[in-house]
Specification:
By secondary structure, the protein is an alpha+beta fold. The chain has ten helices and 17 strands. Helix 1 packs antiparallel against helix 2 (about 30-50), helix 1 packs antiparallel against helix 9 (about 275-285) and helix 6 (about 195-220) packs across helix 8 (about 255-260).
């Protein structure tokens, strides 16, 4: 559920960026066909961009794979379980309510769209229908003339002198299949109703439709002056309640249409600015690609350095001044109260110690990772000789940096309470040839 909300937000952000870019760069140019294509492409890019990480390929080299941390502090199970369960319940309830609200509003928007289509069928059944080629002319008492697919709803209130031009305009909508665009925009709004820009996007798309229809009419035998006169007569007319699904002839964009009709055609060289959209869309897709986190555990200089290291497994106790008696949770399967008592594998040992207690390298090696790793908290991974790795989790802070060489007994960090931890302790693991093994079998000092 969380991933779904994250996807919606990410997709909405991509859409918003592209639409704002369109408003700044292209909304006032006369390249209507390109603008229509750009507007239709925006939702597609927005929907696919957050999924672009699936295309990222990673090199099959040795990497550090950080699994999800699902451990818990053994000596604080009761407190931890109560806290986690309470937090999880609250988070679950909030997410459920939020998801329910999203589905409710989406359903209402979808039902509103279906209701609009149903009203069209009702209006058609109550009106006289004539045919003009592939177009059906529906004569209604409606105050506006508009089209929907191959239906043209003609208002009886339109003057006969205006009727021919208006019908020709609506025929352009039919031929150019503008209703498909509008329907797709409405479906997109069903899922992204929470983004205020989608409603302005719909207006922009319908404006482009009007510009194209105007050009269609004016490319015929119609005089521009006659056509402009019809538009001017319609500006002052009272507009009935607007419905976003229909292409109304008489709508608020008439003034913009007049400006576009009388505007000098944009220079063809300006088409080069559309490369901004290509670069913008590409950049947004790349922003969601999975980072190439494949990291070589040993830097290129490590093979030479390892000659100085003692070829010895990690035998030192990892917390300075502590011993095996301070181990609060051992390696192996145990019942995890966070998973309804299900037996789960504990892949390391937990060592109780006050915050700030020095943590030492248990063998010679190279720091392969020293960074915050979410539920692991501050994590150090050391690469040792002969295929050994040691992991030190929940640290307060680091005393080393990545690619630094360390000797057995060097202080690498300090015990903390970071990540998924409710008590000061060190979670310590030993990996041998990428398999997690029992650290107790190696500790001798």
């Amino acid at each position: 559920m969380t991933s779904f909300f994250i996807y919606l937000v990410q997709s909405s952000l991509v859409f918003s960026c592209l639409y704002v870019l369109y408003i700044i760069v292209s909304s006032k140019v006369t390249f209507h066909q390109i603008n229509r294509f750009s507007l239709l492409l925006m939702p597609v890019v927005a929907l696919l961009a957050p999924l672009s990480y699936l295309l990222t390929l990673e090199a099959p080299s040795t990497i550090i794979q950080i699994p999800q941390f699902n451990e818990f502090v053994a000596n604080s199970e009761t407190v931890l379980v109560d806290t986690i369960e309470e937090t999880s319940t609250k988070a679950y309830n909030f997410k459920t309510i939020l998801f329910g609200l999203y589905i409710l509003v989406s359903s209402l928007v979808f039902l509103r769209m279906l209701h609009s289509i149903w009203l069209l069928f009702q209006l058609k059944q109550q009106s006289k229908v004539t045919h003009n080629g592939n177009v059906q002319l529906i004569h209604t008492n409606h105050t506006n003339t508009f089209s929907f697919f191959n239906w043209i709803f003609i208002s009886k209130h339109v003057n006969p002198s205006e009727n021919i031009l208006i019908v020709e305009h609506e025929k352009a909508h039919v031929v150019l299949k503008h209703s498909i665009d509008v329907l797709l925009a409405e479906i997109y709004i069903v899922f992204f109703w929470f983004n205020p820009l989608v409603y302005r996007y719909r207006k922009s798309l319908k404006s482009i439709h009007e510009y194209q229809a105007d050009s269609w009419v004016l490319n015929g035998i119609t005089k521009t002056s006659n056509y402009l006169a019809v538009l001017l007569q319609n500006i002052e007319k009272e507009t009935a309640t607007s419905n976003s699904l229909y292409s109304y002839f008489n709508q608020s964009v008439i003034k913009k249409r007049i400006d576009m009709i009388t505007k000098k055609p944009t220079a063809k060289m300006y088409k080069l600015t559309y490369s901004v959209f290509i670069m913008g869309a590409t950049s947004l897709c790349l922003a969601f690609t999975k980072p190439n986190t494949t990291e070589k555990l040993l830097p290129s200089t490590t093979p030479q350095l390892t000659k100085e290291f003692v070829l010895d497994p990690p035998t030192l106790f990892p917390v300075q001044g502590k011993s095996k008696k301070d181990i609060s949770s051992t390696y192996g399967k145990r019942r995890n109260p966070l998973k309804n008592g299900k037996k789960m594998m504990h892949n390391g040992i937990d060592i109780k110690a006050p915050i700030g207690t020095p943590v030492v390298a248990t063998a010679d090696g190279v720091i392969a990772k020293a960074a915050d790793q979410n539920r692991w908290g501050n994590l150090i991974v050391i690469e040792h000789s002969d295929g050994y790795q040691t992991w030190y989790a929940h640290l307060q802070k680091f005393n080393v940096t990545k690619n630094q060489s360390v000797k057995k007994g060097d202080v690498i960090g300090y015990v903390g309470n970071t990540g998924a931890s409710l008590g000061a302790h060190l979670h310590y693991e030993v990996h041998y040839k990428e398999a997690q093994v029992n650290p107790i079998n190696f500790i001798k000092e």
